[in-house]
What does this fold into?
Amino acid sequence: MFESILIANRGEIAVRIVRACRALGIRSVAVFSEADQDALHVRMADEAHLCGPARATESYLDVSRIVEIAARARVDAVHPGYGFLSENASFAEAIADAGIVFIGPSPEVIREMGLKVASRNRMIAAGVPVVPGCGEIHDLETARKAAVEIGYPILVKASAGGGGRGMRRVDDEGELAAAIERAASEAAEAFGDGAIYLEKLLLNPRHIEIQVMADSAGHVVHLGERECSIQRRHQKLLEESPAHQMSPERRSAMGAAATRAARSVGYVGAGTCEFLLDAGGDFYFLEMNTRIQVEHPVTEAITGIDLVQTQIRVAAGEELGFHQQEIRFDGHAIEARIYAEDPDKGFLPSPGRIEYWSAPSGEGIRLDSGFEGGHTITPHYDPMIAKLIAHGRDRSQALARMAAALDEFTIAGIRTGLPFLRRLMINPTFRAGAYDTGFIEAEMSGGAGPVSSDLRAIVCGAVAVMSARGIGDAGDDEARLEFDVSLPKQAASRVTVLSSRSPCRIELDGEEIAFEMNFDSEPPILATIVRDGSVTRAELLPRKKGGFDVGLRDRVLRVRVAEIEA
It folds into this structure.
């Protein structure tokens, strides 16, 4: 077994690997950029080294810098996590050339499976079904002929990379030339390789992936599937296992295809084969991720197998220690990704300081995160800040636990995907499991919907009362304070605070409204508002320029408040 491992990553996956190292009695060595010097993974690791400025290309993506640190720290192995250099064959080669073990497959496998056209050809040779398509495209005329043979609609895809970059939908020949130009340009900028190919676009398929694990003795197993169809712009937001209506026969067939794919390239370590599943039940190989996946906790929950520890053991030369027939699937697990993004503004990134962080807990709940209150989310890296995992005896219990945990999770100071995920939990189509990759666009793209009159009254009353308390005691009926309160996309409302002591009384649109309001005094203000027997919980975070960010269960409202001088 290794004595020391350098973790070439940051955030929650770096924390996850540190914990695996602790469990195995291995010294963990972290790297960090100037932006991450106070990060959780830095504090948790046994040793940490600065790897460069905040810009990823000058720190976490600097191959020579990471290799130099690994050699200086005298580590036995390097774990790349996911993202950054995890699927960079040149990095894996540089690590090996330095006499250090790369925890992952060989550079040759990474290179071959990272090139979509090469991996397609390898899968065809191995008898793994692939989406109809063609090889690399070098000129427009060849592309036109190939597109006609494949049949529109098609996808123009980057041969290198992934994550939805370098990908364009084409519905007819008139769109082809511009799509090829944009996809090739984006691929060249993102991956340093502008090669593209064409693939048949399967309309609203399901995205199912199979987790595989292999050792150097030739043992290859699959650990079941993960349903990854809840995604926007080809980025996953939620994963679960088992997949809806996944029969044992189909699981076995997809698992056999995935293990066949791994064996065909001499795979060693943790890997994932991604498939598209059409309405008729046919499945097609999409790509292979030659690293640990973001959503690996889902598989860990239902199998009881620690994938990161197994990765490390296999890289150290140990055999898996279990066979396919010994793997059991227990219950149902769901993972929700928490991003520092504003889902009601097209999922725009929301960098900033986390002013408040209160994490959920309870039976069947797991939280993987590299952040906590007081940390700053910078614009330099991926905006995912946490993964919330719920496990139950069946999907119904897992959903109930996830919904409760999402309600309990409080993050203030930045916008996050929590309100979106809470809305998702009550969507009938999602709850029925009857969704595909087109689900978000079809059913969730409208945001939280308009603010009801009852909600408007509660929000206006709460922020006016809090503003009155900040100015002075409006508990006496003689001390009437007036405010103009503006909710997003609404005209300002005149609110008169008649009493800021519970039961609070305000006047809004000529109507007197009474409500109970209990709260704590430290920002963010966590308030419980009761009106006519209905309970609303809200987080009120005062803004430096006046007003409040009001966090509700399914949305965050930026509310402007202006006092009206007497």
Remarks:
- The longest helix spans residues 453-471.
- Residues 453-564 form a domain with the Glycoprotein, Type 4 Pilin fold (CATH 3.30.700.30).
- DSSP finds 16 helices and 31 strands in the chain.
